[in-house]
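$ run holo --ligand "iron/sulfur cluster" --emit tokens
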Amino acid sequence: MSDLPTFFERAATSPGIAARFADIHPPLGPQAAKVEADRCLYCFDAPCTIACPTHIDVPGFIKKIASGNLTGSARTILDANILGASCARACPVEVLCEGACVLNHHTRKPIQIGRLQRFAMESLHASGAGLPFAPAADTGRSVALIGAGPASLSCAAELRRRGIRAVLYDARPLPGGLNTYGVAEYKLPLSESLREIDMLAELGVDFHFNMPIDAQTLADLERSHDAVFLGVGLGAIHRLGIAGEHLAGVTNALDFIAGYKSGAIDSVPPRVAVVGAGNTAIDAAIAAVRLGALDVYMLYRRGAEQMSAFSFEYEHARQEGVKFLWHVQPTGIHGADAVEALTLVKLAATEDDSLIQQAGSEFTLPVDLIILAIGQSTHTSFLGDSEKVRLERGRILIDRATGQTSHPKFFAGGDCTNGGREVVDAVADGKRAGIGIAGWLEGQHA
Ligand code: SF4
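-- output --
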């Protein structure tokens, strides 16, 4: 073992942040977990397993909890999903495994699969045991993985299990990507993301941080490794393109969430506006409430039925006191040096469903902080001008079965290929690509 502090030891969540962002779903105790596990019907062709993008054997791991075999339960989870601990907390289980549970059809509560998965994974962590598998004998082959988010971490685990060196490069100082910096703290604390990656590091994954990649470094990595995996996620959040956007007090949801999770932000001014109505916008709005804002508004150009956030997230935001302004569009930001107000205009839908501004409907909303959450751009500038990896609408095109791009030596997965989905989708992509890379390298060798 290295003498360096673990990633977990490097995480320093302030007590204030920890207190304000307490668990949204408190953990199950051993007795409650056993009772819940005993409710499972252990379905054949279980729909919960099919609904999971990584196809965790859900009845299998639940049965092991019921019989007291907690290490076996964690192993079943990790075999399918190396980030089983973070997915247990960050997954929208309501629309995945729990949404597919057969008990929903019998007007009974679905099995709490997410909380049971968390129980199994935390039991493994509490036991002090590492991952229940080891790297295979060294094949002498190596893969560079660009980005250290869920897709790359999952890919790296598959490579190490096949004896292939996995070297991750990330622009940030800590691994985990959105798991570490972007998931609301009350769902997945930064420290828990890092604890899980510490276990992965024990498989012999190499990490290089503070290393943004450009076309030149990418070419160097292509030369010095047998294959390259692109798990770079998405780029910056879009701007509004209106006057006053340069003022202090205008930020974006990803920087805001990363800021409070890493301790750089511990309070907000009294009046906050979040522009956008996706799940990230909801996370930012709830965070603003918990960081002390008195009035938090979410602004969206359409209505509640069209928002992209899950309905349970919308309900959660309402319960936290977030106010929603529908059918509005920001037209200007005002203030001397910092934000003081936002002007908005009301929108109406035409017959062909495009939006038009309603004449004379402009009004002013006094605010001190504006958080933009209106979607992210793609992040492919580091590929340079070369045509080696084909793109479609800015997304890296891949063979979905293997993760291979149009360049045989390059593989990819996660948000940079799907435009931004769930953490568990990125894990599934990385897993497929790890297996795909190993198969391709074997073919090259033969
Ligand atoms: Fe258990 Fe529900 Fe999955 Fe059936 S669908 S195996 S009851 S969790």
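-- notes --
The longest helix spans residues 423-445.
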